[in-house]
Specification:
Elements (H helix, E strand, L loop, with lengths): L5 H6 L1 E2 L9 E7 L3 H4 L3 H11 L4 E6 L21 E5 L6 H11 L14 E5 L1 H5 L10 E3 L3 H14 L3 H9 L4 E2 L6 H4 L5 E2 L5 H4 L10 E2 L8 E5 L1 E2 L9 H5 L4 E2 L2 H11 L5 E5 L9 H10 L3 E4 L9 H9 L4 E7 L3 H6 L6 H13 L4 E8 L6 H22 L7 E8 L16 H16 L4 E5 L2 H12 L5 H8 L4 H7 L1 H9 L11 E2 L2
Parallel strand pairs: 2-3, 2-4, 4-5, 5-6, 8-19, 10-13, 13-14, 15-16, 16-17, 17-18
Antiparallel strand pairs: 1-9, 6-7, 11-12
Helix pairs in contact: 3-6, 4-19, 6-7, 11-12, 12-13, 15-16, 16-17, 18-21, 20-21
Length: 516
């Protein structure tokens, strides 16, 4: 039976009506499944902004189904649109992007597209981390907030008579990287292209609060209305792109956040508050309490350890939430200080006790391995932290006849552009596998503790494509054609391994962008 979006559409509860008979339409594509794409608040925000623009409508595309990609809204093929805007937040989706273009019959390389074929645009965090990796495929990269960039983009698409005219117009506009016109590899740093992020002042004005446009059970946040709390982060952890690339910490006004709940009431009673630093909103407790008073069941994305308070926990627990996510990143205080996160295990344990005392039963702890100067003792310290947290859990929950669960999420350090460790090499694969084995064996000896670890092979691939330039195009095309990752990494080791396993010296090619 042919794939159909009918069942997906039947489950959707939109907050606003789309422009069904608009003069212009934009294809908005997420290079992953519907489940993943509709979990992205950034993707939903662009959808709402386009549909809220007079004379414009937006049609969504995802990777689900086979054959030629067709829109969720009308079933139109991807190739029928004048422009396709991709939202990409994860480098692993680069291959999915190329596969979508291939399935649509759109030439992968921009130089091969005819005048009557769609413009390919790319936004999201990957556009600003390092656009050079996809520069052979993408016509225009949008650098920054959709609120600032979409008006100029939609105007250019509506007013210009050809794809080349659109490209030239946006190349001369702030906030766009256009590979055909901006050639940093040939001309060096030109005008330091600057991201057009939302400023703290803009966030104090109405109309700049990202919220869910369509509520659906088919997401990671099933049936939840998502609200962005803030941007940036108070911390400057040396591994984290968000804290450098998203600028200084700033938040949305409490009144705007609470007013948005009124719009959600007609479609759901569940709300999710999301941000890099949710708990650092100055009125987080008031917001959670008011959401409870209005009858919403609330949840938050991960909370910074210092931001865990009894008031926040009480409000979340009262709303029915029983799971909390923290990110200690390391097991030892010393290594945590080296990554510029001066939080002690003593503070962590105090917060964990507070969490279980409040009646929470699920705790997820995020860790990173492969950090510079990391030793095997640092890895074993992760298990020591897990053991101490488990003991606290048992002390607090067992008297109530409850046993909780602790999940250790373990990622491998991928040294990203625009972070404190952007020049660092990825750790040796053999050493990483030994460390993962230590963690898995250690967690297996701890009842009610589980560990999930990132694939070493996937970490190598992600490190390569986050740092690579246009020379990666051929390898990405082979991956999109279905070549196994293990084969690619072996066949192109001479090209991949120096970029991954050697410290970057001298000029950083992506530095023609001014991030943050």
């Amino acid at each position: 039976m042919p794939f159909s979006w009918r069942d997906f559409r039947a489950d959707e509860r939109p907050l606003d009506k789309s422009n069904g008979h608009a003069q212009f339409s934009l294809a908005l594509a997420y290079a992953n499944s519907y489940h993943i794409g509709m979990s992205s608040l950034g993707f939903q925000r662009v959808y709402a902004l386009v549909n809220g623009t007079p004379d414009w409508s937006c049609e969504r595309f995802f990777t689900d189904g086979g054959g030629s990609p067709r829109s969720v809204e009308t079933g139109r093929p991807l190739s029928a649109f004048g422009a396709v805007a991709f939202s990409v937040s994860f480098e692993e989706d680069y291959v999915n992007l190329l596969q979508l273009l291939g399935r649509a019959g759109i030439p992968l390389r921009r130089r091969d597209r005819r005048a009557d074929e769609p413009l390919i645009l790319l936004g999201g965090s990957c556009a600003a981390i390092n656009p050079l990796t996809l520069a052979e495929f993408v016509d225009i990269f949008a650098l920054g907030a959709a609120e600032n960039l979409l008006p100029g983009l939609l105007a250019a698409l509506a007013e210009e008579s050809s794809r080349e005219a659109v490209i030239e117009r946006l190349a001369a506009s702030p906030g766009y990287f256009v590979p055909a016109h901006h050639r940093p590899a040939e001309t060096g740093v030109v005008d330091k292209l600057r991201k057009q992020d939302l400023t703290a002042e803009q966030m104090q004005l109405p109309g700049h609060l990202p919220t869910t446009a369509i509520v659906t059970p088919r997401t990671e946040f099933s049936n939840k209305f998502l609200v962005e709390m803030s941007r940036g982060c108070p911390e400057k952890c040396r591994y984290c792109w968000a804290t450098f690339g998203m600028g200084r910490f700033r938040w949305h006004p409490t009144e705007f956040i609470l007013d948005s709940l009124e719009r959600a009431r007609a479609v759901t009673d569940q709300v999710g508050f999301v941000a890099t630093a949710v708990g650092d909103h100055p009125e987080i407790e008031r917001i959670l309490q008011e959401a409870n008073r209005q009858g919403f069941r609330s949840a938050v994305s991960s909370i910074r350890i210092p931001a865990v308070t009894e008031g926040v926990l009480a409000a979340l627990h009262d709303s029915g939430d029983r799971s909390i996510t923290l990110a200690p990143e390391t097991g030892s205080d010393e290594l945590r200080i080296k990554l510029n996160k001066p939080i002690s295990n003593a503070l962590l344990f105090d917060k964990v006790r507070m969490i279980f005392q409040q009646g929470f039963t699920q705790l997820k702890l995020y860790f990173i391995i492969g950090l510079p100067e990391e030793t095997m003792e640092d890895v074993e310290a992760i298990l020591e932290v897990a053991t101490s947290c488990r003991e606290i859990m048992l002390e607090e929950l067992t008297p109530h006849g409850v046993i909780g669960q602790i999940d250790l999420g373990t990622n491998i350090l991928v040294p990203k552009p625009y972070t404190g460790w952007q020049r660092e090499a990825m750790a040796d694969p053999k050493t990483l596998r030994r460390k993962i084995t230590v963690l898995r064996k250690g967690a297996a000896r701890l009842p009610n503790v589980s560990v999930g670890a990132m694939s070493v092979r996937q970490a190598i691939w992600q490190t390569y494509i986050t740092k690579a330039g246009a020379e990666a195009a051929g390898i990405l095309e082979q991956a999109a054609a279905g070549e196994e990752l293990s084969v690619l990494l072996r066949r192109h080791a001479d090209q991949i391994e120096p970029l991954v396993f050697e410290r970057t010296q001298g000029h950083l090619p992506w530095q023609f962008l001014r991030a943050g």
